[in-house]
Here is the input.
Amino acid sequence: MEGININGVAEHLFSLGFWMFVVVIIGISLLRHEDAHSYRQLSVAGWTSIFASPGIVAGGWLFERRYDDVFYPMLAASGMLLCLGIGLVLCAAVLKRVGN
Here is the structure.
């Protein structure tokens, strides 16, 4: 097992775990507040995810100065968050159109 950088693996797992936690918290908060305007909550969660995505890329770029091989996992996490946000906004639009 030569050549495996355990520090890099730990950072990648921490990043993945953190964003999975964020997704779970958003999902739980959306499920707890089911009402006639759930499309608004989906929309807010989606736009929050979309606008947080570039911050993750910037954070990965800044962290790469200190740690090696951090940028690309952060870029992947940012892409996943961006896709999640787009999906939430699209779901909100569909719910609004069908009348919830």
